[in-house]
Amino acid sequence: MSQTEANYTVVQNSFSITGKPYDTSELAICVVKVNKYLAELHKLFDELNFNIFVVMGQRNISGVIGEIFTKFFCMQFESFLSNPHPDGRPDILQISDEGTKKYFEEECFLYDGDKRIPIKSKFAPFAFDGIEVKCTIGDHRSNYKRDLKEKLDRDSFVIGIPRIEYLNNLTYWAHHAHSCNLFGLYYDYYPPAECVPQILAVMCATLSEGDWHAVSVGLPHKKKTSNTSLNSNGVKKIKNGCLLVINDTLYIQTLQRVGISL
Amino acid sequence: MDYTVIDDSAIELGHLQLTTDELFQAVHRTNSNFEKTYERTRIMQLDVFEIIDFRMLSGLIGETFVTVLASISGQLEQNPNIDGYPDLLQVSTKEMKQYFEGCAAEDFISYKYGGFEVKNSFGTKKSGSFLLKGDQRIRHINSKLDWKAHHRETNHLIALFTDYINKRPRIAALFYSDTLEPDDWAVKQQPKAGSTMTSFSVVKTSGFNKLKSGIRLCLDDQEYIDFCCP
């Protein structure tokens, strides 16, 4: 279901990045390609007796889905390139005019023989516009443990258990509180796709620094990095920016319940 | 490339013994998993190693090795708590197995019967050198390998050194030490706000030398043997 464009509803026909409009139906093609890739990746590792998503760990899955989306987005939309520096931001660079193209090609790389090395200061941050990509499986409601125990005889979530029935909100996290165009992806372990993680909705918003909470530095004994999340202004913007959603009644109704405008 | 056994003495911990053969099997299977992954994803329009960032790949290699070694050794279980220590838990007696099965999440934070921690390093790039993802690193990294831990109490450490061979990540050497002390780890570094790093402690030269003297396996290539062996 999640691997066919026809199974997605286009909520807004187009989205705009720096005043330039782009077709949401092209975005649907991109999402389907990502979902197919995730399914293939799962199958590939399954043949090796290995659940790749379990090994990645819940904390890394969102980031990997975002990276895959970034690559396929840039293959689908001509005027975008993925940020070539591993610490670069934004994730997707908008290279839509000659001036930006010239800057990208001539000022952002060092050359060592035939190697082209991206210069960190030119890509973090990039001097021109682009898109940050964030991915979330959502926040669960506080009484989820009781229901999880009753329905599935489990004490906590594990990778592969769909979370839609426990969804309470969508939050997007970042390492920096910056103005940016944001793609907020929502995914779940989707039962019709054998509970492989699948992108089920895409939201888009233009955010300012004031749409994020203050950045907090990670605690010494924990493995968390410094982070921030959208505040109520930012959350409102992203929830009003849904472009695409899976044609699945349960998901549509639940996303509407948590405030996504569909 | 094949492997040379530098030291074939078993790793011992309490009631537990890990043979060099078990370690070799775990290395070989981990490498094999990544080789197949590379080949299969290359034909899917997107090489998976292009997507996974370097830090995550290093963690993935460590976690893959943990998963594989736990499946090979009947005396170890993988720590189910993401914040738990160590990565591989000793379950070599009936009592330990029963204890493991009865543990709550918080019991895995510092597991009563210990085990082995596993860390991977690709080496730290020499100042001024340029390396892209997938480039072989052996000639461009510092002679001291940097393994990072979340606290300075890390001991009983299986330390892996991985490099890219023909664009595929491959474990190049396996080191071990059960004599690491807090003074073998640098003072914890707290990342600045906005950094994507977690807080961490890097092994000092004293710790690196202990690990180096406990090397068990190395790629059978003179360049790697010269780099890794004491």
Plain-language structure description:
The complex is a heterodimer of chains A (262) and B (230). In chain A, helix 1 packs across helix 3 (58-76). Chain A is of the alpha+beta class. The longest helix of chain A is centred in the first third of the chain and has 24 residues, at 24-47. Chain A starts with 7 loop residues before the first strand and ends in a 5-residue tail after the last helix. Chain A is built from 8 helices and 15 strands. In chain A, a hairpin with a 2-residue loop joins strand 6 and strand 7. In chain A, the strands form 5 sheets. Chain A has a 7-stranded mixed sheet with strand order 1-15-13-12-8-5-4, with helices on both faces. In chain A, strands 2-3 form a two-stranded antiparallel sheet. Chain A has helices at residues 24-47, 52-56, 58-76, 98-107, 120-123, 144-152, 232-239, 249-257, and strands at residues 8-10, 14-17, 20-23, 80-82, 92-94, 109-112, 115-118, 130-136, 139-140, 167-169, 173-174, 180-190, 196-207, 228-229, 242-246. Chain B is α+β, with helices and mostly antiparallel strands and 230 residues long. Chain B is 31% helix and 21% strand. Chain B has 6 helices and 11 strands. Chain B has helices spanning 20-42, 48-51, 54-72, 94-102, 205-213, 222-228; strands at 3-5, 11-13, 16-18, 76-78, 88-90, 115-121, 148-149, 157-165, 168-177, 201-202, 217-219. A 7-stranded mixed sheet of chain B has the order 1-11-9-8-6-5-4, sandwiched between helices. In chain B, a hairpin with a 2-residue loop joins strand 2 and strand 3 (16-18). The radius of gyration of chain B is 17 Å and the shape is globular. The relative contact order of chain B is 0.16. The A-B interface holds A 37, 40-41, 44-45, 48, 50, 55-60, 63-64, 67-68, 71-72, 75, 86-87, 110, 112, 115, 117, 156, 175-176, 215-226 and B 33, 36-37, 40-41, 44-46, 48, 50-54, 56, 59-60, 63-64, 67, 82-83, 105, 130, 132-133, 150-151, 188, 190-199.
